[in-house]
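User: My instructor asked us to take a sequence, write out its structure as tokens, and then describe one feature of it. I'm not sure where to start. Here is the sequence I was given:
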Amino acid sequence: MENRGLGTGSQKHIKDNNKKVILRLMLNQGPLTKKEISKLTKLSVVSVTSNMDELLKLGAIVEETPNEEASYGRKPMVYNVNPRFRCLISVDLGKELVDISLGDMCYHLIASDTYQITETVGAQEMMEDIMVKIETLLNRYQISPGQIGSMALANPGVVYDDSGRILKPAKMAKKWADLPLREMFQERFGCTTAVMNDIDMAALGYQALCDREELPENYLYLRVDAGLGMGVIVDGQLLKCSYGSAGEIGYATLLREDGSWETVDYETIASLSALLGSVKEKLDFHRDSSLYQAAKGEPERVTLELIAETAGKDAWLQAEISRVTTHIATIAVNGMLLLGINSVVIDGGILLLKEWFTEPFYRMLREKNVLKREPHMYVAAPYSAIYGGLQLGRNLVIEHDL
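Assistant: Let's start with the prediction itself. The structure tokens for your sequence are:
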């Protein structure tokens, strides 16, 4: 990383890159001495000292006194990332309830709030309301504009350009699909802003929340809620493409028996909407069932929690869950086979079904995997998209603020 005889511009680029390498190293490994950083980065101690002096002046890192005595002489000074170097803003638009969070450089949440999406509020008014909520949080915690490092917005649908517009919006996002979200929020808050598909952001968030020893390097991130979405992590990196459609299984096509091709709306066969719709439709045909009694014969009372509670007593409910689970497992197995991935992370409301979903789903992963490789299944932590926004935001700070 050290070079001699280069022009001023090249030298500055190398030094800026070295600062990023040092900061990322501390973020991944924690407090380090200059000698340890030199050994890990292959930079000389002189170069490390010069770069760290600049990082200290910026406020990106801080000095810490080690707990243990050195074997002789003075204790070596250790350095660590300053968590409050920048405030990161993460907004998850991927649900009916918008999640808004402020975090620091170490993914600690500073504050959070929510916003209820309603049909009566227009897109512009809704975004204005969300911005006001963000400003309220910033003021409450005395975070000035200069302390804001970045903002990340999780948007449901295929995000196909830097503006944040959606090529194929999910049903809930159709009202704001044409809004240039990145420009709107960046102009309002004056910080680097990025817009990403909500499932992709959640896939990144799993990395931020998972213990490094337990984190698979390659995995499919499958969210099953009212709809169905998938993010793909390969070699620790989010798989993306020029049109933002990587993992968009909801737009796959099937060859019918009559030889025609048809785009399949997987929400109608492999989602919570599909399960709830089918169960409610058939409820009146099962008047002797536990679910019918628990719901008092009223379909609108049927919830996923109620289905999970009564599935053990109702064979027809188990069959309904199995039918939807089979479709979801088939999608997962095909993705694993095509990408050579052996791990699946499950997220979404489908987890409310507990073992009635997870056990048959894992069994089907094993049975349908033609390569006979033992699959690995993980359950996502809550608010994965929010933490994915913090991870994306932290990367933006490192790229733009150093």
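For the description part of your assignment, you could build on this observation: DSSP finds twelve helices and 17 strands in the chain. Try explaining in your own words what that tells you about the chain.
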